[in-house]
Every structure is written in structure tokens, then in C-alpha cells.
Amino acid sequence: MASQIKRLFIGRPMKSNAIEGEKLGKLKALAVLSSDALSSVAYGTEQILLVLMTIGISAIWYSIPISFAVLGLLLILILSYRQTIKAYPAGGGAYIVAKDNLGTATGLLAGGSLLVDYILTVAVSSSAGTDAIVSAFPSLHDDRVWIALTMIGFLTLMNLRGVTESASVLAIPVYLFVVVVFILIGAGVYRYLTGQMVSHITPGADGALSGISLFLLLKAFSSGCSALTGVEAVSNAVPHFREPASRNAIATLVMMGLLLGSMFLGISLLAYGYGIVPAEQSTVISQIAESVFGRGVLYYIIQGSTALILFLAANTAYSAFPLLAFMLAKDKFMPRAFMARGDRLGFSNGILFLGLLSAALIVSFGGNTVSLIPLYAVGVFIPFTLSQLGMMIRWIRLKPKGWFSKFVMNTIGMLTTLLITLIFIVTKFSQVWIVFIFLPVVIWIFYRINRHYANIADELRIQLDIDKPITSQGTIIVPVAGITRVVMNSISYARSLTDQVVAVYVGFNDEDIECMERKWAEWNPGVRLIVLRSSYRSVIRPLLKFIETVEWKTGNSGQITVLIPQFITKSWWHNLLHNQTSLLLRAHLFYQKDVVVATVPFHLKK
Amino acid sequence: MASQIKRLFIGRPMKSNAIEGEKLGKLKALAVLSSDALSSVAYGTEQILLVLMTIGISAIWYSIPISFAVLGLLLILILSYRQTIKAYPAGGGAYIVAKDNLGTATGLLAGGSLLVDYILTVAVSSSAGTDAIVSAFPSLHDDRVWIALTMIGFLTLMNLRGVTESASVLAIPVYLFVVVVFILIGAGVYRYLTGQMVSHITPGADGALSGISLFLLLKAFSSGCSALTGVEAVSNAVPHFREPASRNAIATLVMMGLLLGSMFLGISLLAYGYGIVPAEQSTVISQIAESVFGRGVLYYIIQGSTALILFLAANTAYSAFPLLAFMLAKDKFMPRAFMARGDRLGFSNGILFLGLLSAALIVSFGGNTVSLIPLYAVGVFIPFTLSQLGMMIRWIRLKPKGWFSKFVMNTIGMLTTLLITLIFIVTKFSQVWIVFIFLPVVIWIFYRINRHYANIADELRIQLDIDKPITSQGTIIVPVAGITRVVMNSISYARSLTDQVVAVYVGFNDEDIECMERKWAEWNPGVRLIVLRSSYRSVIRPLLKFIETVEWKTGNSGQITVLIPQFITKSWWHNLLHNQTSLLLRAHLFYQKDVVVATVPFHLKK
């Protein structure tokens, strides 16, 4: 039953060698990997305006130079990551690059912040997508959490089905979003230039803004940098690309940069030109669309595709998180379970883990995870910086032809992202301080896991030429509660394996014990019966004591086996009718004694 | 840890032969067994008045003759049950008496309705007790559910500790209640006679009550009979009494009848004399106490002891339910688990089951289970009737000396309780119809359980002289994932038991398989390695298929054993770091194959 339901949702299991067909072409890759970056357009401008609004409406003018600064940063990042992809064709995520060049600890710092960040991506993106829907349909406001959770559930299922199929489904809305945003920008600019639109605010920069400080401008700039989250996705996913993987990845990265840059700039300019300020009930994009088209069909298409691409942005994390978890698991810093490929060749455990954690975030923040955007952005810029630093060290170390210009490029990238990280920390400390608690904890967990695996490997390692199996005579103990077919089966089985078989009976009163001894003698199964008396009505304690006695007698020479019969009932509720002593006994023996527990099934037919 | 917490709350385990010391003397028995009956005083009068109020305030007069009728019924019940206790010194609950004389089906009908009733007792009594508290402290109104649940939790713990200790704790409030009610009645009567109290309503019976019908009078009478719930408790619990059990039980029964009768009559008369009518915010007893003493210290003592005895009424069910469940389990109509005595010699499972179910009722009715009183009363009168009928048949069957007068006594009892049951059903059908659905279901479950146990007994029974253990050569299969100390241990163990050992390796790709085969040859442990190739990355499916092949080869001649190594980690979280394939494999093998699963523990030291 369970497996049929699983098949319905997940699909048929796929053979391991089917993995090559699952790889991504450029256009599909753009859809899968760029939705995170492109969707940032939906909130990037708004984040800048929110900070500037704290100064006053005339400060809005500053959004224009800030947007150009963000654009410049985007250019630097694209150029830097182009070099990373070339240098790491097997996948150049910040974890790999940092570990490779800066050592394991730095790699784990980058990897840890990325992992946390992917979870935030899913939560923030699905909340922002829900905001877009709620802007269009305010009556849905109370269902925010459910809308976000439904989308997370849907994405989790799609990703469990496998990456290509989900890419096919997801490509359409990504391109739809790109097209409608360009239509919006085109129509908006046309209306502005033809004077059909009058701005509500006086275009500023009149020098009257005495209250504005460098601090607030930097804060607004760093807020705008949240539009750049997701740029790193391509470099992490190089092995997902069809051959030639590096070239395809770089082409995808450049395409993404062009789209993101022009859309972000367009929206920022329109917002300024139309004099739009952030509002509680309606997002900036929603306001622009309403100003340009009114609340008509086009407005709803824009809101719908914005919502869709935000939900798909979450999908980027669904490609990136499991892959990074796999790499960390391969290096023994995360549980081995993250290395297993599921029926459809995706890393199912990573996908499920990501889905559950982000859903938990949505629930605990009541769908208001948009407040996590600063945290999310700082979590991205830490690995950005480390990755650039790693590349710098790499150029110095390897010194390939023309390395110096590449070194300079990465140095510029590193310094810029470091600067932004610092700006984030200084200007938004109250929102990002938790990173300084959380990241050390994550890294500590990585090391604990690693040490555990290393210890186990030590314990389990044997020398093939020296360590060989040794046989020894063991004892089989058969606890019996009466003389039944189950007992007969167990004794038959035990006697087939060894002659040293002991049956043990635990009696609660003299009558029972006497009766049992008499019947046993009559039956005479060729096995000695040991009778234990329990004054406390417990079967387990006397049995454990008896096993201790046998252990003491046999010393270390022979392995003790305890044979436990287990009823396999025909229907689940029948289990309620049998004292589950055997389960309890097994658990006790497991954790307290070094004995083999052999469970002899007795399949009840009725 | 868990066992230390258990010990703190429950106490040291007790030896089985300590049970004699746990038995009840008369005064303690009166405390434990009569609280249900005595506490009915808290709501019996109110139930009558509630019905009469639907006619009009002048109908209140009828509460006096109705109270006397209830008193007469009490007398009949006491006399009848006196005979039952004498005839069934080993415990004459309705289940036993009905089963013994009227056949199993009728016994189960009585037993089933009593079981359900005990659960209702706990729920109704703790709700009514909460009402008494809330009457005194109206600000606690919103905490009703928590107050009731706390009391149920407390009672469950006390009963898990054992019956004598709880009797000692419980005797004080029962006697306190009796004393304060008599003080209340005495003071009330004195004030009434000295004319310090003026009734608010005109004492009626002026013939002007044209609206009053026989139907409503009967309804009011049957409502008053709810004051008699709990009378049967003594007869169920005869084996709990100290020797001479029957005589002690009868003495207790009579004492209880006297107390109950005089208290009930006193409250009814006072309520009439003081012209009290039921109110939403304050119980009848609370109003009487307020009229007599004002809201002083005595008022709060009365409310407090009313609340206490109501909570203790629930305790009656804690003695009766587990004992009845034990009897039903002994006759194989309920799961065997209800037969086990816990550390403190109580039937722990019955106590816990009762606590959980009544807590669930409290939660689902939001603490308003007082509305269940009619259901609760009809559930008591069904077994009352059946028990009397059983006694009648018994007298006819056995015909001891002087049987006829006893027969007449029980006939009167039977007819009266039957009549009341019918009145209940006719006048309160809308509140009690669910009984006609619920009881058949409970009885059907009893029979299903019984049939299951009978089937199993058939399947398990062997003939001692014919069926003997037979030995046969079996095969041990050792799944291996590599060459480690764990594998070496498992193979050593398997080889100690038999020569037919096969190691099985499931590989996912050619490299792994080749590497494994090479290393195995190098190690050469004296056991053949079978390699299976899995294209679907599943270990379990190829293994199940392989076992099928072995089964097919060996036929029915030898038992197959699968050896599964299991890491026992030092700390719980380490378990997260190991793929729990062995658990999954064990579950699959259990339910799908007839193989012995032997778990070889490997205790990790680090």
C-alpha cells in the first residue's frame, strides 16, 4: 500500500545508469538555477526603498545610484564566478573552493552558511510568493501559511520525482516571468516618456536631505544586495550540466546576469519614475503593475508569474541543498543518509530534509519569513567572500598562464563581497547576530559527526592477512512460557545449530512452576529446562540475571544466543492482544548484553 | 533514567506475596468504594430539580415524593446486593453473576456496559468536582479542563502506587464530606425550624399544576436515580476485602446505604425548604451552603469537600475498572495485557487505560461531561437489572434453604431496575440512544478478541507424546557491505553454528563489485561470497530475491537464518549517522519471509 502511494507520487524507480539522461541543457538549467536570482527582482528594489523611506520621501532619489551600485556588484560577481566555474568543472561551490584552498575549517564555514541559507531561501521565497498572491487577492491573507506550505509540499514532490521532469515543468513560468517583467518595463517606460504618467513625488536630490547619513545609504545598499542572492547557484551545479559542462554553465551564468541586471534596473527606475513607495498591503511590483496596466488581466498575470517564480526560487535550493549535503556527507561531515540516491536518482533525504525544515520555519514565523531577508543575504555573502578568497589563494598557488589578471579579478570580488558582509553586520546587527551563534554550532556538529565516523572506521578496520574468523562453541538460550508449537519450533531450530541448548522458564508462583516442570518431563524434548522464580512478576529481570550467570560460566569462549519467538499476526490489531514481552526483551538484551538475539517468526494463519 | 522517574512516582516494586497486606478493612473500604455513591448526593437532587423546573417553579414540590421514591429504590438495591455478595464471595459483579446464570452473551452485555460506565464515572465525577470548585471560584471557569485533567492524572498516579496507600490518602476527604454534609443538614434544618430562613417560593401541591404529566414525573424520578450510581461497587470488589470478606463487604454496603440515603434526603428536603432552584453558575449544594452559612469559611469547606469527594468518586472506578478488565481478560474477551500486575501489584494497564480514556472524554467534551449523566445512569441500570435477573435464575436453579424469599427480593429488585431502565430509555431517548450503538460494538469486539485467542490456542497446541523437536541442517545468510570487524564477527558466529554459511554482497556498480570480490579472495575467510548487482540502489529487494532462491533450493528441509549486524551506538544521536538498513531489512524479512533473523550486536566503544 505505502509503496504504491509512493510510486503514484514519485514515479517508477529508475536504474542508476539512467543518470546521464537527467542532466541539464542550457535553457533548462537557466530555468532551474536562475529562478532564485531572477526572483530577487521581486523584493530587491523594495528592500532599498524600505530603508530610504525611514529618512523621508525625498530620499527615494538615492535608489537610482544605489541600484547602479548593485548592478556593478553583480558584474563583479559574474566575472568572478566565471573563473570559478572554469577552475572547478566538477562543481565549484563555495564549500569546495574554500576547503580546497583555505582548509577544511573555512570550507565548513562556507558550507554551513550555505546549507542554512538554502533553507532560508525556501522559506523566504515561498513567503514572498505568497505576498504576491495576497497583494492580488487580499481576502487570502489568513491562508498565508497554508499557501506557502502547499507550495513547499509541491516542490518537494516534484524534486523527489527527479530533476529533468521538474525542469520541464518549471521552465515555462520562469520564462513567463522574464517576458512579463520586460513587457511591464517596456510599457512603463513608454507611458512615462509619453507623459501619460505623473509621478506623485518630486524627484529629489535637492540637497535638502540633511538627515541622510552614509550609514543609512550603506544600509540601503546592502539591502539592495539581497537582489543578488542566488547568483552562486550555477557554480555549485556544474556537474548537473550536460557536456561540455563548464562552457554551458558559464553561458548560463552570463545569460542569468544579463536578465537579472536589466530587470532589476528597470524595476528600480520605474519605481522611482512612478513615485512608488513601499506599502503594507501591496508589493512594489504590484503597485507598478497597477499604475501601468490598472487591475486588469495583465496585472494578474504579472502577480501570478511573480508568485510562481518566487516559489520556483525555492526550487533552486532543492537542487543545491541536496548536492551540497551529499558533498559534506561524502567528506563525512554529515550523516551518510544524505549520500543515498532515491528511486528517481535524486538525493531524496536531502530533498525531504530541506522541505521539512523550511516548512517548520514557515510555520514558526507564521508565513512572515520575509523578515528573514537580511539574515538570508548575509548568509550568502559569507560564502561569496570565502569563495573569492579561495580563488585568490588558488591563483597564487598554481600560477597558471595569465594568472595575475585573474587574481586581480577575484581580489576585487573578494574585497567587494567582504565589504558588503561587513556593511550588513554593522548596519543590521540586530537582525543578523544569530548567525554568530548558529554558524559555530553547525560547524561544531560537522566536526562531531566527522569524529564519530573516524572513530568507527578505526574500530571496524581489520587487517586482511591477520584477522580471520574464529569459531567457538556457543550456547543458545530459549525462553519458554509454556509448551506450544512455537516452543517446539524454537527448540527444533536451536538443536539444529548446536547441542548446547537451554530452555528457561520464568514462573511467578509454585503451582505454575511445578506444573511446567511436570509437563516438560513428560514431553522430554531433549533439552534441559531451567526454572527461574520471579517474585516481582517481571520476566525480563530474572532472564537478564540468568544470562549473566551463563556468561560468567562460559567466559569469553562462546557467544550466547537468545532465541525469541515472535508472533507475526495476520492483522495489525491482533498485535494489541499479545503482551509485547519479546520486543521489550530484545531491546533490553540489545543495550545491556553482548548476546545475539535471534527472532524466530511464527506466522499466525488465522 | 526512565525507570528512576517511574520509581519516584510509583514506588519500589513489591513482591507478589505482599498482596495480602494490600487488602481493605471496612472503614478503608467504605472510603474507597463509597465515594462514587456518596458523591452522587452532589448532583442527584439537582438532576430532579432540573426536570421539574421545565414545568414551572410550583412543580418543585414534587421533588419531595420523588426523593422518597429514590430512597425506596436504594433500599431495594441494598437488600438485593446483600444477597449477591453472600452468594459470590469471590466477587459478584454484574459480569460474573450474569455470565454465571444467564450465559456468556448476557454477561458480556453487563460487563461491557460497566466498563464504559466506569470511564464515564471518571469523566463525569471529575467534571462535577470541577463545577463545585468553579461555583466557589468563578474566575477559574476557563481552567475547567485543566483542573479535571490534573485530578485524573493525580488519581492515576495514586492508583499505580497501590490500593492501600491510596485508601489511606482518600479516607480523610470522604469522611470530611460526610461530616460537613451532616453539619450542613443539621444547621439548615435548625435555621428552617427556628424560622431564620424564609423560602423564596410558595410550597406547592396546590392542585394548580395542570401541565404536569406522568411522563415528566417519571423523567424527574429517573434523573434522581442518578444518585444511586456507584452502589454496585462493593459487590464487585469483594475479593479486595480483608477476611471475612463477605461479612465485611455487607457491613460496608449497609453503612454506605445509610449514609447515602440520609444525605440525599436531607439535601432534597433543604433544597425544597429553602426554595432553591438550579442555576447556571452555582450548584444546588453551593446555593444551600450559601443560604445557611453565607460565603464564609464553612461554605468554602463544603465546596472543597464536595469537589474532593467527586474526584474520589472517580477513584471508585479506578478500583472497579481494572478488576473487571482483569476478569474479562482472564476469560479471553479482553487483551491479555489487562491481566498483568504492575510493580505495585495493581493492574497497571487497566488503570492507565481508564485514565487515558476518561481524559480523552474530558478534553473532547471541554470539561462539560456533566451532560453525560443520563448516559452514565442508564449504563449502570442495565447491569443492575441483569445482575438481579441472574440472581433470580440462580435461586431457581440451586434452590437453597429459604430460597423463595430471596427469589422474591431479587424479583422486586429486577422489576424495579428494569422499570427504571425503561423509563430512562423512553424519557431520555435523545440522550441515551448512543448506548444502542455502542454496546453492540463493544460486545462484537469482545467476541472478536475471544475468537482470536481461541484460534491461536488451536494453532499452538501440541500433543506432548507425538510432537517432538526435529533437527535439520539450515543455511545462514550473512549480508556484508564490506570487510570490517563487524563482518568478521558475524562470520565467526555463523561458522560456529553451521558449515552452510553464505555471505552476500549487494553492489551498485561494477567497480565496487570487482573491488569487493578481490578483497574477499585476499581475505579468504572460508565462506563463499555471493555477489548481487542492484540497478535500483536497493539492498533489500535483491536480498529478498536471493533468499527466495535459497528457499527454493533447500525446499522445506532447512531453516534459513539471516544474520544482521546492528551497531549499538554509545549515544542516541549517533544512530542518526548510520543508515538504518538493518532495521528496514529486519522488518521486511519478518513480514515477507519465514526466516529467522539473528541480530548480532556490535557495541561501538567510542
UniProtKB/TrEMBL annotation, chains A, B:
Its main location: membrane. It comes from the Bacteria. It holds the Pfam family AA_permease_2. Keywords: Membrane, Transmembrane, Transmembrane helix. GO terms for cellular component: membrane. It is found in: Membrane. It is a multi-pass membrane protein. The chain crosses the membrane at residues 60-81, 102-124, 144-160, 172-193, 213-238, 250-277, 297-326, 347-367, 373-395, 407-426, 432-449. InterPro entries: AA/rel_permease1 (IPR002293), APC_K+_Transporter (IPR053153). GO terms for molecular function: transmembrane transporter activity. PANTHER family: POTASSIUM TRANSPORTER KIMA (PTHR47704:SF1). This is APC family permease.
